[in-house]
Design brief:
Layout lengths: L11 H10 L13 H5 L7 H8 L1 E6 L2 E2 L3 E3 L6 E2 L1 H13 L2 E6 L2 H9 L5 E7 L2 H6 E3 L4 E3 L1 E6 L15 E5 L3 H8 L3 E5 L2 H9 L5 E5 H10 L5 E6 L4 E8 L3 H16 L2 H10 L6
Parallel strand pairs: 1-5, 1-6, 10-11
Antiparallel strand pairs: 2-3, 3-4, 6-14, 7-14, 8-14, 9-12, 9-13
Helix pairs in contact: 1-7, 3-10, 4-10, 4-11
């Protein structure tokens, strides 16, 4: 589920690809004290000063990506995990926040064109994106998980999927991981169908992003399900800025560190996922 990216296992290469491409996602390392001040004079980088002068942090987001950026009941105001986190960051910076809702396919083009200062939409960090954009420290971490019926104790690792039947979207990299783990694939259109088949006992398991499962468990009765295993590797999601926007990114890192230290990030995460996915 993490955007849009969507062990030591026989499927190590497939797993790494799945975690890189899934995009759903506690900064891994707190920004060094004074890092904003240290970079404020970077030649040609006025990204932070421009936001401070405008008094507004303009944010690109989808607005249709539950639970990260969406409208409640389709008609209410914009809300979601990423929306609340970036709003808290703007408050720390001492500026207002303004959202520009944009389709995912056009969101990086909007950043390149200067339509907004930052993307807050569960952008997974990948080597390719790091070459083209500046990222904040991660504020979401996630793994891949095997979801099974609560009373099924036959699966406790990815190796145990050999000979089992899993429900997977054929366009998902989780399908590749399931297949490489030896499972037989039941094709479905997405998570809703996958989890329904597991609950009905028509398949043994499904593999998906942990945030997808946590969101489901927070908003539905998941007492009939359990997580049987997780991948060793994690996907990391962060705010994306135009390349070279170091002063703004550093200031956002400082804000994230403060929000992690005072418990704000954990509180927002608990609200949407029932646990702290920000670390």
């Amino acid at each position: 589920m993490t955007h849009r990216a969507r062990l030591a296992r026989p499927a190590l290469a497939a797993t790494a690809l799945a975690l890189t491409l899934a995009a759903c996602s506690s900064p891994a390392d707190d920004a060094a004290p004074g890092s904003t001040a240290a970079t404020a004079g970077d030649a040609g980088d006025d990204s932070l000063q421009a936001v401070l002068d405008a008094g507004t942090l303009t944010v690109g987001t989808e607005g249709t990506y539950r639970p990260f950026s969406f409208h409640e009941d389709g008609t209410g105001g914009l809300t979601g995990f990423d929306v609340e986190v970036v709003t808290a960051v703007a408050t720390e910076l001492g500026v207002e926040v303004e959202f520009e809702e944009t389709q995912w396919d056009a969101i990086f083009a909007g950043l390149d064109a200067g339509r907004f200062d930052v993307i807050a939409n569960q952008v997974s960090i990948t080597p390719e994106r790091e070459e083209a954009y500046t990222f904040s420290e991660p504020y979401t971490y996630s793994t891949g998980v095997i979801v099974v019926a609560a009373d099924d104790d036959s699966i406790s690792s990815f190796d145990d999927l050999a000979g089992k039947r899993t429900a997977q979207s054929l366009t998902s990299n989780w399908m590749t991981l399931a297949k490489d783990s030896g499972a037989t694939i039941e094709a479905v259109e997405g998570w809703a169908q996958s989890v329904a088949l597991v609950e009905q006992g028509r398949v043994d398991a499904t593999i998906n992003d942990k945030l997808t499962y946590l969101d489901y468990a927070t908003t539905n009765d998941a007492s009939g399900l359990r997580v049987a295993a997780e991948t060793d590797e994690e996907s990391r999601s962060a705010f994306a800025f135009a390349r070279g926007s170091s002063t703004l990114a550093d200031a956002v890192d400082d804000a994230l560190a403060t929000l992690a230290a005072d418990g704000t990030l954990a509180e927002i995460s608990e609200k949407y996922f029932g646990e702290d996915v920000t670390r």
